Fold Lipoprotein.
Amino acid sequence: MKRMTTTVLAAMIAGATVCAGSASAATKEETKYTTQYTNLKTGMTMTEAAKVLYGKDYKKQLVKKSGSTVLKKQAESTEISYGQKTKFYYFTNGKNGDSDTSLIFMTKKNSSVYRLIGKSFDIYRENTKSAARESTRKLAKGAKVKKGMTAKQLDAILSGTGLGEWTGIEATDWSSIQSKADLAAIGAEKSSYKTYVFPTSTGGRKMVLMSYDYKKKTFKVADHTSL
């Protein structure tokens, strides 16, 4: 899955209609779709993912096309490259569309079975300054976020304990559709990201992208920008 940089995310937020407000804990609907995202595991077939997305009525949401079982929902894009097929789906969640989910499915070479290789989930808030779900933690006065900081080091320059609420999460894992040799050749590593928006002591906002370090088992600052 192609990861959005903080610059792209910041531009999207800047284009939204926003009003001043304060951060708050997760709503019931946000929790519902966060759980759905968590239950969508990379490596799942299209049928297995449909069960998570649609529940007991999942069979009604599937159709056979060109020998493959796919979602009846129209894919945003479909590609075929080197014998592998890819489908990208985008979902606007809830009654008010306050969050969205993106899923990428891909087949092994010359296979008809699609498997989930990438997923992302983003939450928006109309009542915040940034239009994102902002963290309830605030950056301390004079604090500077630096690339490479661990979650623990970032926590040390925030109010309270922990990083608070994130506004976006995503994960990618190609291992279900590529051999180890192919993964090494193309440099396709397993990845996991979280995006936070922290209020600052001066009334501004700092967007921070955290990437997971699988060797050290902690999230680290991959990028950051002021909003």
In short: Confidence is low (pLDDT under 50) at residues 11-23.
